[in-house]
């Protein structure tokens, strides 16, 4: 035993010497040590089992004590009585409390948003104008310039000529034209540290497209850097814009960085408008080539800073480097490459519209370019009318101005907020039924009524306006089929029983929107059954491109139309709220 206590595994020489001392062979000594080790191990296991049994018994006792406390509703610490626990009542209490907090939050956010929109962009933000915040100003400059570098790479790289050097294309062809970002290549090339991780619940859309646009590149840059002219250039995309502080001084065409708050919309009352707080940066990147880049400012500074100076709900969407690259072609036109790279809160989107946004069609680059081309064609027609003696062009410009006024009213009636100048406004939603039997379904209708005050000097009475808008989904129906049906003059009587009197219409005149916008026409229509002296004409505009189509029309008296064609738009300034259709793809292919 003394030898075992000193060494449990003796070597062969030690076992031979020990056997000689006690008269045993070495193998017998070896067997004795093996048996001894087994006995000690077994004893250790028994002791461990006893300890585990004791711990198990203690846990069982504690478990039984807790069970007893639950059943008898007593406190484990002091053995006093506790209140009964009802999970249903507790859940109801939490839901009620949550509803109260949510209601309070929405009311406070609405008040805060109104106050901020009225004052936030009329005073300098502290990190821009305060000398004590020069470090924050430098951070903004560094952030904006780094974003511009990324934008230029996205705008110029990724074409097939770069495939050999880049390995994979940065941009991939989209099914309906244009390009979509290759996110695998994008994440491999660019670090995510500049913008941070995508917020939880946000989806991403990134598209690129190019087009030829009338006008010089320098003129376009000046338009984009002027918030009022920029908003007028994209009436179907930009709902409103408010200019903020200038972060970096410079000319409109080179070096200026400005803070802006913009609201963008899609022509449907079901889709919430998209609000972004952006820094816009213009830069001359080469001879006769400019870049105008937008990037969201949300997240650069803490949320507590931004909430104090920017509208609430500011994180509903954020723009990663987006904008346009404009190259002058020296022939009266320029090439514009447009990029939209956005992340948005997908939970705010109706289920029906999610595929449309997810594949980038709702706010795609092609939609911005189509709006730009349309407005530049307007400008070209206006320019041609300035030549003396060009009466036909002057009449065309009269139609163009009326159409612009009509389209602006249509956009606001469908998805825009009612203007604050309108005295009394009421917005209600209700559901109307369509079809019968198993084909019957409910359609949400947005009803807007407002009263426009009359002129006391002219003795005009107040006018009351009503607008009703609804959205329907037509599955397995190509959008172009619907568009062609609605603009077919021979079949208009099948759906227009008011202005067309259920019959076909004839075209009295039209203005085409140029060679780059085939199918976009402004027309004056007349019912073939209207034989009165002062006919009620129909002013109609149809436009179509990959992201959607529009058929918008309004009645206008023949006398008012003649006055507008002669250059006096006052007689047609009070025509009724326009009617029409916004035809959007469903995004499902």
TrEMBL record:
Q: What is this protein called?
A: Uncharacterized protein
Q: Which residues form a coiled coil?
A: 35-62
Q: Which InterPro entries match?
A: HD (IPR001356), HD-Zip_IV (IPR042160), HD-Zip_IV_C (IPR057993), Homeodomain-like_sf (IPR009057), START_lipid-bd_dom (IPR002913)
Q: Which residues bind DNA?
A: 3-44
Keyword Hydrolase recorded: no
Any one Gene Ontology MF annotation carried by this entry is: DNA binding
Q: Which GO terms describe its cellular component?
A: nucleus
Q: Where is the START domain?
A: 133-381
What does the UniProt entry say about where the protein is found? Nucleus
Which family does the UniProt entry place this protein in?
A: Belongs to the HD-ZIP homeobox family. Class IV subfamily.
PROSITE patterns in the cross-refs: HOMEOBOX_2, START
Q: Please list the residue ranges annotated as the Homeobox domain.
A: 1-43
Q: Which UniProt keywords apply?
A: Coiled coil, DNA-binding, Homeobox, Nucleus, Transcription, Transcription regulation
Recite the lineage of the species: Eukaryota, Viridiplantae, Streptophyta, Embryophyta, Tracheophyta
Predominant localisation class: nucleus
Q: Organism, per UniProt?
A: Panicum virgatum (Blackwell switchgrass)
């Amino acid at each position: 035993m003394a030898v075992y206590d000193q060494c449990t595994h003796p070597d062969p020489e030690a076992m031979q010497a020990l056997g000689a001392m006690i008269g045993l062979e070495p193998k017998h000594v070896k067997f004795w040590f093996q048996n001894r080790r087994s006995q000690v191990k077994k004893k250790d296991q028994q002791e461990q089992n006893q300890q585990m049994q004791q711990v198990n018994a203690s846990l069982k006792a504690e478990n039984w004590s807790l069970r007893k406390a639950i059943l008898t509703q007593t406190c484990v610490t002091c053995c006093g009585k506790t209140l009964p626990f009802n999970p249903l009542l507790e859940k109801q209490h939490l839901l009620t409390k949550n509803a109260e907090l949510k209601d309070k939050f929405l009311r406070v956010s609405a008040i805060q948003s109104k106050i901020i929109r009225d004052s936030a962009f009329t005073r300098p933000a502290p990190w821009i104008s305060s000398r004590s915040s020069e470090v924050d100003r430098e951070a903004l400059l560094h952030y904006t310039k780094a974003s511009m570098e990324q934008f230029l790479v996205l705008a110029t790289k990724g074409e097939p000529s770069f495939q050999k050097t880049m390995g994979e294309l940065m941009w991939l062809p989209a099914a309906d034209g244009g390009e979509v970002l290759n996110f695998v290549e994008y994440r491999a090339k660019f670090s995510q540290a500049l913008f941070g991780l995508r917020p939880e619940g946000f989806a991403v859309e990134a598209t690129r497209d190019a087009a030829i646009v009338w006008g010089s590149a320098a003129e376009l840059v000046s338009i984009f850097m002027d918030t009022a002219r920029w908003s007028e250039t994209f009436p179907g995309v930009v709902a409103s814009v408010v200019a903020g502080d200038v972060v970096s001084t410079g000319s409109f065409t080179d070096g200026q960085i400005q803070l802006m708050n913009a609201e963008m919309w899609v022509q449907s009352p079901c889709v919430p408008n998209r609000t972004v707080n952006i820094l816009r940066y213009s830069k001359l990147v080469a001879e006769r080539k400019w870049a105008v880049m937008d990037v969201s400012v949300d997240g650069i500074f803490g949320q507590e800073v931004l909430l104090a100076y920017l509208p609430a709900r500011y994180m509903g969407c954020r723009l990663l480097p987006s904008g346009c690259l404009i190259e002058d072609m020296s022939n009266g036109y320029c090439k514009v490459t447009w990029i939209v790279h956005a992340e948005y809160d997908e939970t705010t989107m109706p289920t029906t519209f999610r595929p449309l946004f997810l594949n980038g069609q709702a706010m795609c680059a092609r939609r911005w370019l189509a709006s730009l081309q349309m407005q530049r064609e307007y400008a070209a027609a206006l320019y041609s009318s300035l030549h003396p003696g060009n009466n036909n062009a002057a009449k065309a410009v009269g139609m163009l101005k009326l159409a612009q006024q009509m389209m602006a009213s249509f956009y606001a009636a469908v998805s825009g907020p009612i203007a604050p100048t309108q005295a009394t406004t009421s917005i209600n939603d209700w559901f109307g039924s369509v079809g019968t039997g198993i084909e019957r379904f409910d359609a949400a209708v947005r009803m807007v009524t407002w009263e426009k005050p009359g002129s006391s000097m002219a003795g005009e009475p107040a006018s009351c306006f009503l607008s009703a808008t609804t959205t329907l989904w037509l599955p397995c129906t190509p959008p172009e089929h619907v568009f062609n049906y609605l603009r077919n003059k021979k079949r208009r009587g099948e759906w227009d029983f008011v202005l067309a009197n259920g019959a076909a219409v004839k075209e009295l005149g039209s203005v085409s929107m140029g060679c780059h916008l085939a199918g976009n026409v402004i027309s004056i229509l007349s019912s073939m059954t209207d034989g009165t002296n002062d006919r009620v004409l129909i002013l109609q505009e149809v436009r179509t491109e990959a992201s959607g189509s529009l058929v918008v029309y309004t009645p206008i008296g023949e006398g008012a139309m003649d006055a507008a064609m002669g250059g006096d738009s006052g007689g047609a300034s009070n025509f009724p709220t326009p009617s029409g259709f916004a035809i959007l793809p469903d995004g499902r292919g």
